[in-house]
Design goal:
InterPro entries: Asp_de-COase-like_dom_sf, MoPterin_dinucl-bd_dom, Mopterin_OxRdtase, Mopterin_OxRdtase_4Fe-4S_dom, Mopterin_OxRdtase_prok_CS, Prok_molybdopt-oxidoreductase. Keywords: 4Fe-4S, Iron, Iron-sulfur, Metal-binding, Oxidoreductase. Pfam families: Molybdop_Fe4S4, Molybdopterin, Molydop_binding. This is Anaerobic selenocysteine-containing dehydrogenase. With 840 residues, the protein is an alpha/beta fold. Among the domains are: 50 residues, 2-Layer Sandwich (Phosphorylase Kinase, domain 1), CATH 3.30.200; 174 residues, 3-Layer(aba) Sandwich (Dimethylsulfoxide Reductase, domain 2), CATH 3.40.228; 191 residues, no CATH class; 127 residues, Barwin-like endoglucanases (Beta Barrel), CATH 2.40.40.20. Helix content is 37%, strand content 15%. The strands form 8 sheets. A 7-stranded mixed beta sheet has the order 5-4-17-16-15-6-7, with helices on one face. Helix 2 crosses helix 18. The longest helix is centred in the middle third of the chain and has 34 residues. The radius of gyration is 27 Å and the shape is globular. Bound molecules: ligand MGD (2 copies), iron/sulfur cluster (SF4) and molybdenum atom. Iron/sulfur cluster binds next to loops.
Length: 840
């Protein structure tokens, strides 16, 4: 047996800091390793966000790190659909040649990118953006485009940014289709929820057809019928208006376009809507009055409504609850927060409160001219001096430092905006090339992807690059996505595991795991304190695998899109000093803005080479630090990084490296939320005419989703204690509910004579699956629920365990605005199976 006992001087017994990669909270962890295994795992008390908290899920993270699912060689698909191992050079040469071939024949925009960073690996994802730009891509997507794009568009109309609720302090906390007890999404969710439930002065309102763990703690549980949230939330908002409970004074001061909203809500028939969602009108009115009376209100919506009918409309109505009552930018309310780098929406530079003096304005003008004419000569001069030995290097360093000092403010903002806009795809088209679906934040609706491929349209997508995602499993109607993938001229998957998607790809590239390389997550969504953690590798990459920056660097090298001379000059500047590098990089991008999208690659190949051995991937963390201080100088200063300009970025970068537990990088004040509004007038623009029309249309009809053929509403994708998307493939990870049973209401089970453990077939319009059932008090009659994250192949396991949900869903049941799939609302029937059957 392997020796596992550890002594104090055995360095494998050291607790090393990292983070959980299973949900967006990214709680800090401390881990002990033995060889390549993660042997002991505990919460890290020093982590600035989680402070020692974890849920049950990360304790056996080794099931992600180690096991038969890991791939350790590049693979190429053969004619019979099997895979042959090939060496890295062959794989990279062939892939680069084929990418270039597709680009030359059909344009770079025919290469589509999917994924790029799951729940914990956005550093690799950001390096991937450089390949997108190197190829000339214009279309991409990821999981956000099957959940958050509707809400994100509503945000962009209302105030142009992402919001977060201050649930630690809110007097009234509202969860709409969100079960934070299991799915988290709030730092230290369970203690926060318990505290709200315990405090008699605070109130929790949950809108959910199920008695979820969160609903069980609620003061008011609005147990709507599935898919009826638009009627429910509009009835609450209408009560605020019709009973004159809204904050007219606050709205007059802080919002525009209020009157059309009030008018539309005055027309809502509260009683009829209450009836449509299966609730008492009195309960709706009580809840509205409680919201209006509260000192502070925050709301959180998630998949229960985002993957249900009317998702974009519900996002709007939900936000009206806190907007009409003036609960923005105050303790316990809703806020726009700072970001390390925005995952959604536009990068925004908030000027220093101190303002810009006349001297600075003059410098800005000089700098603009200098950058226009002197950019390339400056870079060359630094590079040439750098080659001339120590003394001239020192002189170059001093000159660069002085120059940067003077000009930083003037040049940094416009250059940073160019880089940020490229990386966040601000200039992407607004419609897809084939079906004309709306694109938001650069993302094609997930449900439209197959439409953009399975067609003869000349502008169809021809190649696909997939990283850190398993769309053949996670997108609606898997079979259609698989058909789309197989019809492409080229498909490449970068993953740690042989996933369902990898099994359809032409090439599979094995990535190092998130514990084998530098990584970081950009889920910096908190207010008022936001933290960012750069995680160092706990061990070297599994032999045969490579970290993403290396993979992307190697492919981009082969595409030959950047002249070697330019890379050499930037690298030489980096050897002089980071000030010299920054100056060289800024001047390069000023002269060659078309290279801005390649910034991650430029950083990796040049600045990365001058960082200590093995730390090249941190070059991008430096880039983030720079963008972060440029966009939110005051909030970063309040967090303790008080230098100015470039110096402030350097302080933040140094802290990222010195604090493996993570750093608090911003300290916002409640009133800051106003400065983060992106509308020029600094106000909330309450009216969204398209959605007010939609409200009237929806209120004119009754919800109607089931039929005699499909009498149940299946929610395909409930988050449970042991689900974590499909990040962990080994079914032994789950301590209980191994198969992920179908939850069914007591009344329905009695009617069908079912008991827990019995097996049934669930049939939908698109497919069928067999599963065991769990008779559950959580469910209302007519509603059934299957967990997400099941139904994946694991080598050595005798069968696939649990239901692969998207064999049951259809891409046609989707939101009319942003195409979000109705995974929570799939019409279904149940066929009782007499005896246990094998999975089909
Ligand atoms: N344990 C665990 N946590 C996770 C994940 C995981 O896989 N496992 N995944 C992470 C990810 S990627 C995400 S996006 C989040 C999602 O987090 P959540 O959205 O909170 O999780 P769900 O369980 O999918 O859905 C929330 C609730 O919606 C309810 N619901 C179903 N239909 C309706 C409806 O018609 N109306 C309303 N109002 N509610 C409805 C369900 O009963 C459920 O309680 O979780 C994150 N956290
Ligand atoms: N029916 C139904 N469908 C759903 C949902 C639902 O509730 N119901 N939920 C939807 C939601 S909200 C989401 S977020 C999506 C999630 O689905 P996906 O976007 O497909 O993401 P994950 O399941 O998180 O898959 C992460 C992938 O990254 C790989 N990976 C892990 N670490 C690394 C790494 O370091 N490098 C690389 N390159 N790869 C790595 C894992 O092996 C895994 O294959 O599913 C969506 N699909
Ligand atoms: S799954 Fe989420 S809440 Fe649980 S420990 Fe991991 S990051 Fe924290
Ligand atoms: Mo998600």
């Amino acid at each position: 047996m392997r020796q596992t006992s550890q002594t104090a001087d055995d360095n494998t017994a050291e607790w090393r800091k990292t983070a959980c990669i299973l949900c967006e909270c990214n709680c800090g962890l401390e881990i002990q390793t033995d060889g390549r295994n993660l042997t002991k795992i505990r919460g890290d008390k020093q982590h600035p966000g989680s402070a020692g908290y974890t849920c049950e899920k990360p304790l056996r993270l080794d099931k992600y790190q180690s096991g038969a699912h890991r791939i350790d060689t590049p693979l190429r698909r053969t004619a019979d659909g099997t895979y042959e191992p090939i060496d890295w050079d062959t794989a990279l040469d062939e892939i680069a040649a084929k990418l270039a071939g597709v680009r030359d024949a059909h344009g770079g925009e025919s290469v589509f990118f999917y994924g790029g960073g799951g729940q914990g690996n956005h550093l690799g994802g950001a390096y991937g953006r450089a390949l997108y730009h190197a190829v000339g891509g214009r279309y991409m997507s990821n999981a956000l485009a099957q959940e958050k794009t509707g809400e994100s568009w509503v945000d962009s109309q209302l105030y142009g940014n992402h919001t977060t609720g201050d649930f630690e302090h809110s007097e009234v906390a509202i969860f709409v289709g969100k079960n934070p007890w299991q799915s988290h999404g709030i730092a230290q969710a369970r203690p926060v929820l318990r505290e709200i439930a315990r405090d008699p002065n605070r109130t929790m309102i949950v809108i959910d057809p199920r008695v979820s763990e969160t609903a069980a703690l609620a003061d008011y549980h609005l147990q709507v019928k599935p898919g009826t949230d638009a009627w429910c939330v509009s009835a609450i908002a209408a009560t605020l208006v019709q009973e004159n409970l809204y904050n007219a004074g606050w709205l007059a001061e802080h919002a525009t376009g209020v009157e059309p909203v009030l008018r539309a809500l005055r027309e809502v028939d509260i009683s009829a809507n209450a009836h449509r969602c299966g609730l008492d009108e009195a309960l709706i009115r009580t809840v509205a009055r409680r919201i209006a009376a509260a000192k502070s209100v925050a709301t959180y919506e998630d998949l229960g409504v985002q993957q249900s009918p009317n998702s974009t409309l519900v996002a709007y109505l939900n936000k009206m609850l806190w907007i009409l009552t003036g609960n923005f930018a105050k303790p316990g309310g809703v806020h726009i927060h700072s970001w390390m780098f925005p995952l959604a929406g536009r990068w925004h530079a908030i000027p220093k409160e101190a303002g810009v003096g006349s001297a600075q304005r003059a410098r800005r003008e000089i700098a603009t001219v200098a950058m226009r004419y002197g950019a390339t000569p400056a870079r060359r001069l630094i590079a040439a001096t750098a080659r001339r030995g120590a003394i001239s290097q020192k002189a170059a360093g001093l000159t660069a430092s002085a120059t940067l000092d003077v000009f930083f403010d003037a040049v940094a903002v416009p250059i940073a905006r160019t880089i940020a806009d490229k990386l966040s795809m601000a200039d992407s088209p607004s419609r897809t090339p084939v079906s004309g679906a709306r694109i938001l934040n650069g993302l094609i609706p997930c449900d439209s992807i197959a439409d953009e491929i399975l067609t003869d349209h000349p502008d169809r997508l021809r190649a696909m690059w997939i990283d850190s995602s398993n769309p053949a499993h996670s997108l609606a109607e898997s079979a259609r996505f698989v058909a789309a993938m197989r019809s492409l001229e080229l498909s490449v998957v970068v993953d740690v595991a042989m996933t369902e998607t990898a099994r359809q790809a032409d090439y599979v590239l094995p990535a190092a795991s998130q514990f084998e390389k530098y990584e970081a997550s950009l889920f910096t969504l908190h207010f008022p304190h936001n933290s960012f953690q750069v995680r160092a590798p706990l061990m070297a990459p599994l032999p045969g695998t490579r970290p993403e920056p290396e993979i992307y660097g190697a492919v981009i090298d082969r595409l030959g899109v950047v002249e070697p001379r330019l890379l050499e000059e930037l690298a030489a500047a980096a050897r002089v000093s980071r000030e010299a590098f920054a100056l060289a990089l800024f001047s390069t991008l000023k002269a060659r803005p078309e290279l801005a999208g390649l910034t991650p690659y430029l950083l990796y190949r040049t600045l990365g080479a001058s960082l200590p051995e093995g730390e090249a991937a941190l070059a991008l963390a430096w880039g983030f630090a720079l963008l972060c201080v440029i966009s939110q100088p005051d909030a970063v200063a309040r967090a303790g990084f008080t230098g100015s300009g470039f110096g402030q970025a350097e302080e933040l970068f140094a802290a990222m490296r010195a604090h493996p537990e993570g750093v608090m990088f911003s300290d916002d004040r409640y009133e800051d939320a106003w400065r983060y509004i992106q509308h020029a007038d600094g106000k909330i623009h309450a009216a969204i005419p398209e959605l007010l029309d939609e409200l009237r249309a929806v209120c004119a009809v009754d919800p109607d989703y089931t039929s005699t053929e499909f009498p149940f509403t299946l929610s395909a994708g409930e988050r449970r204690a042991f689900t974590a998307n499909v990040i962990i493939r080994n079914p032994d990870w789950r301590r209980r509910d191994r198969e992920g049973a179908l939850r069914i209401a007591v009344a329905d089970a009695e009617r069908l004579a079912l008991s827990t453990g019995d097996r049934v077939r669930v049939v939908t319009e698109s497919g069928s699956a067999t599963t065991s059932v769990e008779v559950s008090e959580m469910m209302q009659a007519g509603h059934i629920s299957l967990p997400n994250g099941m139904g994946v192949a694991y080598p050595g396991a005798d069968a696939v365990v649990g239901v692969a949900l998207n064999t049951l869903t259809s891409t046609l049941r989707r939101d009319k605005f942003f195409g979000s799939p109705w995974h929570k609302n799939v019409p279904a029937r149940i066929e009782v199976l007499a005896a246990p059957v094998k999975e089909d």
